[in-house]
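Field notebook, page 489. I keep forgetting to write these up properly, so this time I am using the form the group agreed on. The chain and the ligand, 2-aminohexanedioic acid, are recorded exactly as supplied. Prediction of the bound pose follows.
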Amino acid sequence: MTYVSTNPADLNDVVARVALADAEEFADAARLAKRAQREWAAVPAPVRGQVVANLGALVESNAEALARIVTREIGKPLAEARGEVREVADTCAFFVGEGRRLYGQTVPSEMPDKQLFTFRDPVGVTAFVTAGNFPIAVPSWYIVPSLLCGNAVVWKPAEYSAACAQAFHDLFVSAGVPDGVLNVVFAEGSQTYRGLELALEQRLVDKVGFTGSSEVGALIGELCGRHLQSPCLELGGKNPMVVTEDADLDLAVRGALFSGFGTGGQRCTSLGTAIVHESVHDEFLRRFTAAVEGAVVGDPFGDVLYGPMLDGKFAVSFEKYLGWIRDHHGVHGSTGVGRITGANPRKGFLGDPDSGLFYHPVVVSGVRPDDEVFRHETFGPLVGVTSYRSLDEAVELGNLPGYGLSCSIYTTDPRKVFAFRRGIGAGMVSVNNSTSGAEAHLPFGGNGRSGNGSRQSGGWVLDQFTRWQSMNWDYSGTLQKAQMDTPAI
Ligand code: UN1
């Protein structure tokens, strides 16, 4: 089977054609990885770090070409695509040094003439299934540290970002990653699941990482659990933004515009619901809808707030929510709801709307906890707005959907910041900034429906891709027994 990846801003433009693997082929890739891993693990960690340094340099020197592939294939505005490439380079920069810091410890023993040690070892073969909204940055969070730690990798990118994945894979090869150490496999969902199952049954995979929907994440978590493995799960979000009565409203509006509609709302960290203090709610809503109406949407190579949906399947699932809100009286849409076309135009539109998967931005006011768009990640250009009276109520509303990835608070009162931070269940909190746009050296990840508490980015990730081995070395020449008072025999 062949998958044809098209440009979502111009559906006649074919960007890549790739062969899709079946479950057996997926497991074969893991077998190949397992064979290559031992030799890769024997390469000194600082030398593996040098490969990461080479990759970083290659990413920098190919930055513009990479960004253009990202924009062409998934429709992310070029400025955002350039930022994504930057994020990959930053990830490399961070992990280069870790190659010289894969420290173990020397630990005192409770007995004389005995020394304890710990070592960090690679886990073995890691398998990553990644989404296409960040077709190179999010994969780099997995692949770069995993390789650095001495693991081999099977990478199943989203097919609709196939050209990005191939371009990125080529750079890993040019950087010096040996044959079999990084294996890219394209496969549709059910074959991927079955392939993972086979690989786990045959003990070919030692750690799974998955970025995608909470529903699929739960299935992967269950599968891994059956094999006594704990995967890294980076799932959806319904990320709240709380705007307090003392907030800088213009700043909050700009933050909401970028958080809610950047990448067309198709980030796991995109803003879901703005929860605004009742005393400033109407003013916030007025300014926010004006900003949304004034924004330019369209050709992602132009200066736009956002481009098309990433891929047809996201358009289909977004339509479900639009169906719900069409009946909802509180929509503060701009020119319309639904697909932007010649027949359903938008004033601020750049390019030909009929050529791609473009959608009107939607602001839904008065969302309540029972509403579909309040409870679920919509993964599209849609932001809900509601009001609150006390900060406790705002925190409760923010936690209600049960996700816990990102959030933000706009306030000038530090007491509110800390009360909010303590109460909210999110893994990431922004103060006076966007819910999206995480930096490459802070722990990234969520709780609840957003993940299983695993964290990516930064040094913390080393604990996911290595395992500790402890060693005790008795040089007393007698049999010393731990936890026993009896004299040595
Ligand atoms: C994602 O959408 O899966 O925080 C990750 C951000 C990005 C990462 C998003 N740096 O917006």
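OBSERVATIONS:
- The mean pLDDT is 96.
- The first strand starts at residue 2 and ends at 7.
FOLLOW-UP: compare against the apo run.
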